[in-house]
């Protein structure tokens, strides 16, 4: 069993059984402002519904973004803490992979651009080929103005939520095939607002 957590858009938590590709439980909210307030409740509800103790899980899948800094770090911190406390491996994933996989489940086999809100009048994007057994990321993740997105010939999919269950199943597929997952560094794709001073400030009387 895999637990998945993503807060790159709203907040989504799921438990899946990779051996049967079954979604045991999924709990989510599209609210992009209350990640810290709801993540604990959603985790408790998912574990309670599934009747699973943390020690019975085999790993924790976490969406590393791209996503706005404040919300994204809540999910990453929750996943890292849960994995550490339960003694489970942590599997980082690009969050948009879940949306691409969900699109593929509808029978789509084209090239799609997954787009999510980056705020500040910008969007995050990732390009996928859906013609294979599992989606293949061709480009991205990237950050752009809505009217300056690359790959204009691709079908655009705007995602308000990241389905944690599909994120877990995408990770399971990569793990089974021995393929690399994402970096364990958060994908903010934007320079921090606060920077270290470039020099020593002179103080005078």
Describe this structure in words.
Helices cover 28% and strands 29% of the residues. It has 205 residues and is of the alpha/beta class. The strands form 2 sheets. A 5-stranded mixed beta sheet has the order 3-2-1-4-5, with helices on both faces. A 4-stranded mixed beta sheet has the order 8-7-6-9, with helices on one face. The longest helix has 18 residues, at 69-86. 41% of the residues are buried.
Instruction: Please state the average pLDDT score.
Output: 92
Q: Major β-sheet, in short?
A: 5 strands, mixed
Order of helices and strands: EEEHEHEHEEEEH
Strand content: 25-35%
* Radius of gyration based on Cα positions: 18 Å
Can you list the strand order of the major beta sheet? 3-2-1-4-5
* Structural category: alpha/beta
Number of strands: 9
Taking the alpha carbons of the first and last residues, their distance comes to 65 Å
Question: How much helix, percentage-wise, in residues?
Answer: 25-40%
The count of helical stretches stands at 4
What are the segments in which pLDDT stays under 50 over at least 5 consecutive residues?
Answer: none
What sort of overall outline do the alpha carbons produce when their principal axes are compared?
globular
Secondary-structure blueprint:
Blueprint: E1 2-6, E2 11-17, E3 22-29, H1 35-50, E4 59-63, H2 69-86, E5 90-93, H3 96-105, E6 111-119, E7 122-129, E8 136-144, E9 155-158, H4 164-177
Parallel strand pairs: 1-4, 4-5, 6-9
Antiparallel strand pairs: 1-2, 2-3, 6-7, 7-8
């Amino acid at each position: 069993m895999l637990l998945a957590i993503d807060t790159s858009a709203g907040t989504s938590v799921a438990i899946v059984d990779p051996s049967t590709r079954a979604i045991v439980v999924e709990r989510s909210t599209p609210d992009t402002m209350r990640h810290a307030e709801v993540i604990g409740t959603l985790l408790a509800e998912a574990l309670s519904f599934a009747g699973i103790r943390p020690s019975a899980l085999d790993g924790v899948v976490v969406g590393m973004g791209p996503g706005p800094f404040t919300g994204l770090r809540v999910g990453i911190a929750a996943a890292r803490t849960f994995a550490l406390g339960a003694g489970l491996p942590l599997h980082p994933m690009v969050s948009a992979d879940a949306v691409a996989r969900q699109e593929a489940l509808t029978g789509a086999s084209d090239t799609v651009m997954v787009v999510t809100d980056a705020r500040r009048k910008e969007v995050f994007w990732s390009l996928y080929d859906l013609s294979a057994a599992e989606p293949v990321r061709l480009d991205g993740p990237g950050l752009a103005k809505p009217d300056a997105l690359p790959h204009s010939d691709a079908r655009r999919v705007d995602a308000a939520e990241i389905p944690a269950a599909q994120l877990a199943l995408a990770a399971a597929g990569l793990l089974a095939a021995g393929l690399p997952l994402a970096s364990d560094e958060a994908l903010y794709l934007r320079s921090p607002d606060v920077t270290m001073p470039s020099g020593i400030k002179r103080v005078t009387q």
